[in-house]
Fold this protein.
Amino acid sequence: MPQHKNTHTSPDAPGGGPDGGVETLVEHGKSEDRGDAGAPGTDSEDGGAAPKAGAGPEVHRGAPAEDAGGVAGADPEPGAGSGSRAEASRVPGAKADPEDAPEGSPDAEAAHTSAARTDPEGTPEADPGPSPDAGPTPEVAPDTPAKAPRFARLTRWQAEHPQGARVLSRTITVLAAILVVSTLVMPATIVDLGPGTFFRLPGEAIVGAAILLALPRKPRVVLAAASGVVLAALTVLNWLDMGFKQYLGRTFNLVLDWSLLGDAQSYLEDSLGRTATLAATAGLIVLVLLLFAALAYAVVRLSNVLARHSATATRGTLIAGVVWITCSSFGVQLAGVPLAADSAAVTLQSQTERVSDTLKDEAEFQKVAQVDAFGATPPGQLVPDLRGKDMIFTFIESYGRSAIEDPIMAPGVDKTLAVRTEALKKAGYHAKSGWLTSATYGGSSWLGHSTSLSGLWVSNQQRYRTVMASDHLSLTKVFKKSGAWNTVGVMPGVQKAWPEQSFFGLEKVYNAFELGYKGPKFSWSTMPDQYTLEQFQKRVHGKKHDKPMMSEVILTSSHQPWGPIPKMVGWDELGDGSIFKGIEAAGNKPADVIADTTKSRQEYGKSIQYSVTALTEWLERYGTKDTVLVFLGDHQPIARVSGNHASRDVPISIVAKDPKVLDKIGDWGWSDGLRPAHDAPVWKMNLFRDRFLTAYGSTPHPKKG
């Protein structure tokens, strides 16, 4: 076939443009420069197919230099066919060395593609020549302006600074390796983070390298990109595990816990403000998207490096595999951390098992919830020994064992408990206290409420939904079923529809908007506990009724972030709550407390002192001989406050004037006063309902599903 030759003069090359030119010979369907990224019969290394010969417009003498270059590859560092590379292209038979060009540039990719066509003996394969399907090359008129190539400035910079381009390319490769290895060896808990954690050998990287080395280019690139996406997803789950362990003392449940992210956002809005929360949320979303893109790109880039240096990479992979197996077998450690890591595989396995266990647990728990030891007990046989008493069940937010025994919080809290015990004793009240092990930790208070009142272990959101949809008899509903009490709930933390009212047997619920509060919010808490209790007195306890009252009261002032904290004011000065405006304004800012662990502990202790003081002062002021108060914590505070190895125990107290009430639980072994002894009995929280019902004369009549 006759050849039509065109010459192209590069103004960037020595002698180019008006000062002289270097002419490059271009044929229909064939280029003499084998190192060109657009060489016929080759594909770019990063997955984009190079144009076939003859498919692009022919370039004539006189066109700008940019018209001839600019083949865009997947790597963002396209090289230039100029400088030393241009010299090489003019030498007959010269072959581009991939090390002579920056990694990721079209020159490097094309050189590698050329090298990839060499058999193991080093003999180049025959050039396949032009595609038979390629049509004639369309000519471009000399005066037609050509389209500037992509990354033209970067191309010129690479040509002018080959050493800098090479350093930049290798730096990006090193950063890609660091990113991949860091995500592979990342631990699942914040406490395990440390320098030694990231200097480990990930087994997943060794296996992945072996697989990628064995694959042809296109499957390799696809698998590498998919692996990066999977690794990013596992990293996000790992971050969620870290956060949940730090705040809730458990791992993230892929099936059940997505709804809690909305609650977390609402909490941040109440604590930090809407603007800061929206900014933080947007930043987090951007970070996650960048993580997915960066890891996909990083794994693809590293796979290209492996392919370009397959012999060296194969030897390195074998050596790394032997080292990993040896270290794993002999338990070799670095700074107390196993050198052989498999964190990503463990995360994947644990998440898979967690999903499977969750689905099984749902079916099994439905059967458990249908069985109730007191479900068929006649109304007249329910708590006969409490008839005529005004019963009050009160939950104090985040009131845990740490408040009583932690060296930072305990001194203030213990002093408050001692003072309030003596004050109640002078008013004629006595108390007994013990410990319950909560079904939740650090948050999800409703799980603690439902566990203690239902007699079932409600440890996750699915179980909670199952219980709420059942006819299982809650402790508070017992009083309604008996027909001897009116029932009411005071819930300042409820700010939306609350269908759980039916399960708890509450005839009336006062939520955050029905207590007449006109003062400021205290971070998450809608109103101070003292105000809540005063409204409870005015609207419920202090009114005359045809029956005694059973009340469930939820106190919220000790909810994180413990800043600002209300202060006690005169009970007669509470009014509509406006008195708290100055107290709230003078208090700590939530962001200041959240950022300081020691301050968080100190302020948490103060919040418990406030809530206990408000509750016991209310009882001292408004209680009667028939008032019986049962109050307990719903869960421990977050791990940052209670400690990474804290128990899930919470204190519980029963306070009454009538000695017969406490005599009924005399065999429980509980401590006298409001402070349970360290060695006081510890029960699982779900056991409290049945023991309470039995102690006060209820007769079991089981109901089976």
User: Anything to note?
Assistant: The longest helix spans residues 274-308. The chain has a mean pLDDT of 79. The CA atoms of residues 269 and 277 lie 6 Å apart. The chain is about 45% helix and 10% strand.
